[in-house]
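The methods section describes the discrete structure representation at length, but only in general terms. What matters is that the chain and its backbone geometry are given together, residue for residue. For illustration, here is how one protein appears when written out as sequence plus structure tokens:
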Amino acid sequence: MEIVYVCGRLIFSLASNVYQKKLSHHGLHPFYIVATTYFVLSLIAVSFLGTIQLNDLTSSFWLNVTLASLFDVAGWMFLVLSLSKTDFSVFGPLNAYKVVVSMLLSMLFLNEIPSTQGFLGVLIIVKGSFFLMPPSPTRQAPSLIYLFLDKGVQARFLSILLFSIGTVFLKNTVITGGAFETMIFWSLIGLPFALVSNYFFLPHSMQTELSATRQHINRIVFIGVMVFLMQYFTLLLLANMLVVYALALFQLSMVMQVLIGYQVFKEQHIRRKLLASIVMMLGSMLVLAA
């Protein structure tokens, strides 16, 4: 069943990302898009709330699901911000840095020293990144430096960091309470965090955002449903598979995102970006296998 979860997760993730990018191009703020997504998630979650035995959930579950929701809401906000500023065909291959962040977190907090193979994998990922930005005669800085200075890329790196931290708490939540229970309360607890964030970061534009929402209701509902299914499949994978293997399988989406960038958003330099995604995917596999 794991392969079904992986394929489902990849498809629903790609679909939600495409429409999140489209909404951002229609003028909706990325943070507001995240809030509407969590509103739809909460509506779905409320309909299943009566099937859960609340007395069976421990204090450890509530702590972990709250922390997971906090980090994931922040992760989603910067993910959609990155989508609004970055080519889809660049956004996708940056997924390879998830394994780099995971390795760095293990070094910092678990005192785990990566093997030579792990460091080699990181170098390959960084080298592959070089091909994401095509050379330009008007650009003075090297392509790699230009990539890392890009605001959309920086937002993607921050989202990867936040999601990586959140995954630790999600895994603990699934262990203590179950995937379905985690899905329901991850959705419900995330909504207040998303609304509070919008209140502080978009205090003067909420009325404008609400007015613009009416013509995009179908897309907003679609994104919410896709994120719900994607997240539930992710939780099922965390319950049935080691995180390291799940991360390895998620790298398969990089090539698909480059192709979608070309087909849907008419992005350029696709051969170069395909090469980058393949090199970075190989590097991430080396890190995960180390």
